[in-house]
Amino acid sequence: MTGPDPLGPSRRCPRADRCEACGTSRRLEVATYQTPVGVFCTTVCDPCVDTRNAPPVRSWVEAFERVAAHCEHLIIDVDQMGALLHREQQGGGDDQG
User: Is 0.90 topped by the overall pTM?
Assistant: First the structure.
């Protein structure tokens, strides 16, 4: 049995007033997306979540900034996020720790 996603949205993740993928202001939620440098949170609408329409990340710098901001929301550092992602990729699940 697995628990909640340790890198998923937290209550500290801010919710914007528009979907960052399509711009709508209806049916919004905070979701997380993975990049090559880590996981970031963003506000997206339900239809964009359903169709996997991710918000654009236009540069490596933007990806790093967004990942670092999400780490702050989770109260972890980027090394801890890297360790969690590595464990997830290795199939370690939630039973370790």
Answer: no
